[in-house]
Amino acid sequence: MCQPSAWATATNVQSTGSHPHPHLYIDSAGVAELKAAIGSTHSLIWTQVVSWADQQLSAPTPEVLEGDFRRIGERIPYVAICHLLTGEKRYSECAINTMLAITACEHWGNNRDIEAAHLLYGLALGYDWLYDALSPSQRESIRNKITLQGMRLHASCGRVQPLLNNHHFVELVALGAASFAHMPGPLLSNWNAFCTSLEELCESVHPPLNNHTVVKLSALGIAAMALAPDAPSSEWTSFVNREFEKAMQYFGEDGMSCEGISYWSYSVEYMLKYFAAADP
């Protein structure tokens, strides 16, 4: 799988000085171009974006974030882009209220898995896109929360995956099924060695190419670019680049992922979100 051209530009994010807002994916000139495009070439896509954003205007944000709360993070970019392109306050109010609500939550689930990553991605992107609509105190609160959750996510990257995840379930089921298949008949000569190796695999760190790691790295990278050049954005950017380079080595030559098509599409979506933001 080809490496993107984003490494060098992403590596230099911290040295480019203070960014105007917005700058993630789109700048003020890009906003003007997109405003024209949604009335012509991008009208179909725009209709779909507005339809989904409108459904979010009355969606609540819980005071305690538990379970799968990824959709809350995904809400912010939709309503934020609608504000950028229409200027309608109902969209900025929805986005800002959501951002302030999740900022007020002390913990985002366990603070270290993909649910927290989705919130960090949405909060960082909302901070950049709605910077001018935020008050100074709101900017400070949101920036501090991005920093805190980014530090938590950064600390968790590379840790052993928790026992409750799909990889371990599949591996353990395979081990159990194979055990039943060979009982009570004679064991294969290398059966004990096979069981030992699979048990060790279940307890080890999964390779860098898994959807949890990729989503977390992408969110951390976007957060770094949203905060740049403030600390610790440079440390996060360097870390994300190194880890993504490792992950890319686990793709097959044809781009195949060991996780199958569903998780491949999820992982590549978030890889591209980071690469596109890092590429000038």
Q: Mind explaining what this structure looks like?
A:
This protein has 280 residues and is an all-alpha fold. The protein is 65% helix and 0% strand. It contains twelve helices and no strands. The chain has helices at residues 6-11, 28-37, 43-56, 70-86, 89-104, 114-129, 136-156, 166-181, 191-203, 211-227, 233-248, 260-278. α6 (114-129) packs parallel to α10, α8 runs antiparallel to α9 and α10 runs parallel beside α12. The longest helix has 21 residues, at 136-156. The two termini are 21 Å apart.
Number of strands: 0
What average pLDDT do the residues reach?
Answer: 84
Q: State which percent range the strand residues make up.
A: under 5%
How would you describe the oligomerization state of the chains in this entry? single chain
Shape: globular
Please specify the SSE layout and strand pairing.
Layout: H1 6-11, H2 28-37, H3 43-56, H4 70-86, H5 89-104, H6 114-129, H7 136-156, H8 166-181, H9 191-203, H10 211-227, H11 233-248, H12 260-278
Helix pairs in contact: 3-4, 4-5, 4-6, 5-6, 5-7, 6-7, 6-10, 7-10, 8-9, 10-11, 10-12
